[in-house]
Design brief:
The structure holds two protein chains of two kinds.
Chain A (H helix, E strand, L loop, with lengths): L3 E4 L2 E5 L4 E7 L6 E7 L6 E7 L4 E4 L2 E6 L4 E6 L8 E7 L9 E2 L3 E6 L1
Parallel strand pairs in A: 2-11
Antiparallel strand pairs in A: 1-3, 3-8, 4-5, 4-9, 6-7, 7-8, 9-10, 9-11
Chain B lengths: L3 E4 L2 E4 L4 E8 L5 E7 L6 E7 L2 E5 L6 E7 L2 E7 L7 E8 L10 E2 L3 E5 L1
Parallel strand pairs in B: 2-11
Antiparallel strand pairs in B: 1-3, 3-8, 4-5, 4-9, 5-6, 7-8, 9-10, 9-11
Classes of the chains: A mainly beta, B mainly beta.
Amino acid sequence: GENVEQHPSTLSVQEGDSAVIKCTYSDSASNYFPWYKQELGKRPQLIIDIRSNVGEKKDQRIAVTLNKTAKHFSLHITETQPEDSAVYFCAALAPDSWGKLQFGAGTQVVVTP
Amino acid sequence: ETGVTQTPRHLVMGMTNKKSLKCEQHLGHNAMYWYKQSAKKPLELMFVYSLEERVENNSVPSRFSPECPNSSHLFLHLHTLQPEDSALYLCASSPGQGAVIGELFFGEGSRLTVL
């Protein structure tokens, strides 16, 4: 089955700097890669996703890149703000897995003013 | 406000107790899920239901028993749990199913502590 590795496990950045979180996956058939943000005590919420037919997707200050050959994808947050502090989870979905999203272990991002 | 509601939000139970977690979604989605969230570990999928039929069971111990009476409600029945079962249990729903699930909408979770 699919296996997703996520790094780093914690990330501290100064407000205004960029943050990058990287994930690798094992199943080359995986074709859907969402990112979820979970603030302290809150539910995980989708912030951006990418499908395997594109290499990059942007939404304001966040972007995701996908390298299918290397089987890794990354989340980029620019101009970080204190409200970006949260745990971020990457995930991958293989087409034959029947909705079984495989999540990474999460990255705790702390943005310091 | 939320499309997916879970009750109770907190539950403390002894190892011999029987309790149930409830999830309700008001989004008209076709698929519902139970996930287990433990500290510093990936979200673990426990069960997937599509149109009330269970389609995925990730080798979850039988002390966890799901029930999906209709497409809007999902239960997780708990019996003779172990302390290591203490975790946040998240319910989710999605508009799609199978290979095209779309976005997962999570509930706030039920924090379970097993003494």
